[in-house]
Amino acid sequence: MREITFNQAIAEALDEEMKRDKRVFLMGEDVGLFGGVIGQLAGLFAKYGPERVRDTPISETAIMGSAIGAAATGMRPVPEIMFCDFLGVPMDEMLNQLTKMRYMFGGKAKLPVTIRTLCGAGISAAAQHSQCLEALFMHIPGIKIVVPSTPYDCKGLLKSAVRDDNPVLFFEHKGLIFGGPKSKIPEEEYTIPLGKADIKREGRDVTVVATMLMVHRALAAAAKLQEKGISIEVIDPRTLVPLDKQAILKSVKKTSRLVIMTEECKTGSSAAEISAIVAEEAFDLLDAPIKRVCAPDTPVPFSPVLEKFYMPKEEDLIKAVTEIMKK
Hints:
The chain is an alpha/beta fold.
């Protein structure tokens, strides 16, 4: 076993998949000579050259269109849209082409496109470079959505995403890359299947479903609540599409209480969808109302003080858990 960072997990996963399959190539702004906007792709350009690590113009529309065309004709592109905020630029290509072609052609067309993109607040990047927009794409049938919280998960899930014959949207939270946690990983190759949740902490009193950076805040809150005699089970879905509903429902059956913690704006969030699923399929198991701990329905502030207030915190989760325990 050895320890790696989130950046190393990304680079190693892509290196292994490019070595394994010559159809895999990278493309995007600053992915080549610069090695990625925050160094996620360091060393790959020198190893594979400009044919397979392609710097592109600053045009998300061109990046996405080229990736779709390459995938439809037999390649396995890994395009990078530098920040998820910019996914609105090629939205028509994603909404009406990428996610529809395999269905419309009766499965004859494969679209193995793995779109990597940065998300999340916490570094004062302001309203246009800090959003968590995963729920927007949950509404579009035909695309898988990956939201890793650890380097171990990131590497295994990214390898599975590249091998998938369907479009995959792979979110990388900036808070996990800048000074985030390390993970121990095995020396041998491994993958993690899409659609399989992970129990990050077992508990008996309250189920907390959390994603990406919020997993770590949930774990920190759980440690504090344990001191008060409240036992929290923390579930990391790891992928939102496909979603491991059974893992969540099984936990709720045990605890009878549910809190969902994500960094998205609360309205229309993935937390709202998970809440609806449990309300529809496990309402009789609940001993208290479902709570959501999310960001407010505002743009992300630039001010560090306001940004810290905007992001969901351990204290917010502790308050939500305490409230439903009283019921």
